[in-house]
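Internal QA ticket QA-208
Title: Verify multi-chain structure generation after dependency bump
Assignee: T.L.

Test input:
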Amino acid sequence: MGCQMNVYDSYRIAAMLKPMGYSETSSWENADLIILNTCTIRQKAEQKAFSFLGRLGKLKKKNSNLIVAVGGCVAQQEKEQILDRMPVVDLVFGTHALSRLCEHVYHLETCDDRIVDVTMSESVHEPDIPVDVSKPGDVKAFVTIMQGCDNFCTYCVVPYVRGREISRQPDKIIEEIKMLANSNIREITLLGQNVNSYGIKQKLCSFAELIHRVNDIEDIVRIRFTTSHPKDLSDELIDAFGQCHKLCHHIHLPVQAGSDRVLKRMNRKYSRDEYIRKVNRLKAVCPDIAITSDIIVGFPGETKQDFIQTLDLIEKVGYDSLYAFKYSDRPNVPATRFSNKVSEPEKSERLKQLLTLQEKLTLKKHKDMVGTTEQILVEGLSKKQASDSHKQYHWTGRTSTNKAVNFSFPIHHKDNGAPLTGRLVNVKIIKAFSHSLWGKPVDIESERMSSKGDNYHAA
Ligand code: SF4
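Actual output:
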């Protein structure tokens, strides 16, 4: 559940358990071990975790050896209370306990104990050999470059459940990316709560310097990163969009609100004007850059006037898309104690208004792309396969600006879609939809030998 950090951690968990003989299964009934990697960013996410655990009682009755483990941010936040609330749970492991997960599982295989490990550490655990999180057929991968956050936005639980900001050593990150490139990964997303402040506290290289180093790695053709905090978006990093040809022309730059009064109460440490100035500089350096963002509506004390400023900022920036949420109280964060809470119906109304506006902006951006030719990295066959009499199949991939593009192209055999997956294809955009584009392939990168000398994706 939750963010890309959790997705990355779940990949790591699966890779770490493999040497212990654990393999993934999609059937709950056959599982010997069930791990729930949780999110607590909003009330709803936390409730989803507990209702999921509630449904495991039946399985445990059928298989008393079944081990149930809870990880992620709810585990870190609720700790041993999860054992009291959920008798089905055997292990609670916090956001800094991943490296000890295998030893706990090994212990529980033979002992009828219940374990809580939520110890936080001052350093990032680096395995001797980087864990290869990629799977056969993958063309892109996440790589975490840091953990935790020191910003303490007044609505956010992350600093309390992920701890203080710690950056990984740049050499370790480069080593992991080179290993992934050897496993035919071509696109890397650098992950962190606030990647823009990478390395500052520990006086390592800057984030822009790290991007330049990744840009020099052969076989990697695309670099993305998330999430950025506007206050740490440096000129050096903005210039990297003009200097690193593998850096994709997309930035996720959460603004959260459009009114300085609300930004102050959120402790975001930048003003509306500063944000707009940085956006304009980004557009000057990289004119076709796609900008996406996060916005919270109904923050305590947000007036109608404040909200109008948010709508106005959305139009000014012209976002490509937005993740927008209604404010919800979270345990232990200052905003929960703020007065002037906005009513639920009012929050829903504001969210609806905001999403309606953004849908119009996104569709216009997509329509403006009709007739252009975009280079996409093919990720595989589209989920929606239309059986086509000419044995044409639907493929999917993304532009550098992170737009989803689908197109049709014949393949010889359907088993794993090998021919196009992982290749760069120039596609002429002929149709625009709300959330994707349809195109016609005009030029396909020839099959190439990866630096390891094998055919691309001959998995
Ligand atoms: S920067 Fe992001 S992760 Fe950090 S406290 Fe603020 S919202 Fe949370």
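Spot checks passed. Residues 449-459 have pLDDT under 50 and may be disordered.
Status: verified.
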